[in-house]
Design goal:
The protein is α/β, with parallel strands linked by helices. About 30% of the residues lie in helices and about 25% in strands.
């Protein structure tokens, strides 16, 4: 069985849970680095990972890696690759560049050199070249530059994997689906545990939890870039999809509920539930966090509270934090509570001692996942 080298990118802070997920899928030589996980595996594993990964952003296939000094070295590196053997000239392309401590002055020029090499390689074979599409290319080629090495990857995913296909409505600054799934994994939530989000917004935590509980593959409703590749085996792909469909637990009862003070947010959440075919499986109600009550004796409360960028909003939030702490102490004894926040003031102002603080990134925004164990008899919310 031929093994290929891959790199799975993910939101920063989720590398360890992604490595665990890839291990469970059957990947080998797994190594977590900042922003993702490198691994090796078969072509079948790559298809399976695209279909089943809840945490990865993209799966990149590593084509070659060499030392470089100047832009012309990048052209030579890309020209060596037999692009026409990988995909058809009719497929549109886009070259992206990520550079970390690269001595090159312009990433645009680096991208141009790689694009020229790909087009020249196609011209050598058939006289025509693929077209560039910067918006929705069939093939995304990714160049990764360090201070000394250049690596060329081909993106097997296409559109980013957080685009599951169920989000029809989004509130302002929605949480990406794979970040929500990664946070669920970090919380240690188990599918038989009650889960409650008191500030649920458009319902991302709730939907990701339900998809996991019902064993619904996150990629079951979309297409992938690998389907355009010459070595794509449609028969194997369809059997993988059928296998995933048959493994769904659609009758699995869910103890997942959410509430939000905003009726608009709840309308969006309801539309997303319908799109995800989870209508009626998750209970939603309009409620202020201050009126929230634990639906069961034990469970996991997980929420991404609003973050006030405007000063007047920040003051309001700061005043609300100690009240949220009181709600947890008075009504959520026996629960584990998780707040995912970009506001450094929350940890202190809630007046509970976090048992854990996990640094995470929501795009470029540095955040924390705060854990509060609401132990019976210990109103400080820690052991």
């Amino acid at each position: 069985m031929q093994l290929f080298q891959f790199f799975a990118s993910c939101p920063r802070g989720l590398e360890t849970v992604l490595a665990t997920e890839l291990d469970e899928l059957g990947a080998s030589t797994i190594a977590a680095v900042d922003g993702g996980v490198s691994f090796s595996g078969s072509w079948l594993l790559m298809m399976k990972a695209n279909l089943h990964s809840r945490i990865a952003s993209r799966f990149l296939w590593k084509l070659d890696e060499r030392a470089y000094v100047r832009e012309d070295d990048l052209y030579r590196l890309a020209l060596k690759i037999d692009w026409p053997a990988l995909f058809a000239v009719e497929n549109t392309i886009k070259v992206g560049v990520t550079a970390v401590k690269s001595p090159l002055r312009s990433t645009n020029l680096a991208a141009l050199k790689v694009k020229d090499a790909i087009c020249d390689r196609f011209r050598q074979v058939g006289g025509t070249r693929p077209s560039v599409d910067t918006q929705e290319p069939d093939m995304r080629i990714q160049l990764f530059l360090t201070d000394k090495t250049a690596t060329i990857y081909l993106d097997t995913s296409g559109e980013a994997l957080f685009k599951r296909g169920y989000r029809v409505e989004a509130v302002e600054a929605p949480l990406r689906e794979n970040l929500a799934a990664g946070i669920l994994a970090l919380s240690g939530w188990q599918i038989d545990e009650p889960l409650y989000d008191p500030m649920c917004g458009s319902g991302t935590f709730l939907i990701e939890a339900a998809l996991k509980a019902r064993n619904i593959a996150p990629g079951s409703r979309r297409t992938f870039a690998f389907q355009y590749l010459r070595q794509h085996d449609e028969k194997t792909w369809q059997s993988l999809r059928s296998e995933a469909k048959n493994a769904e637990r659609n009758e699995q009862p869910l103890q997942i509920s959410g509430s939000d003070v905003s009726s608009t947010a709840l309308t969006h959440a309801q539309a997303n539930l319908v799109a995800a075919k989870l209508d009626g499986a998750i209970s939603l109600k309009q409620l202020n966090m201050l009126d929230a009550k634990a639906p069961t004796a034990e469970g996991v409360l997980l929420t991404n509270p609003p973050y006030g960028i405007r000063l007047d909003e920040q003051d309001k939030l700061l005043a609300a934090y100690p009240e949220w702490g009181n709600v947890l102490k008075q009504r959520f004894t026996g629960w584990r509570a998780y707040f995912f926040t970009a506001d450094p003031a929350l940890a202190k102002a809630i007046r509970l001692k976090p048992s854990k603080k996990t640094p995470l990134f929501n795009g470029a925004l540095e955040c924390r996942l705060l854990e509060f164990k609401m132990i019976a008899g210990g109103n400080r919310g820690h052991d």
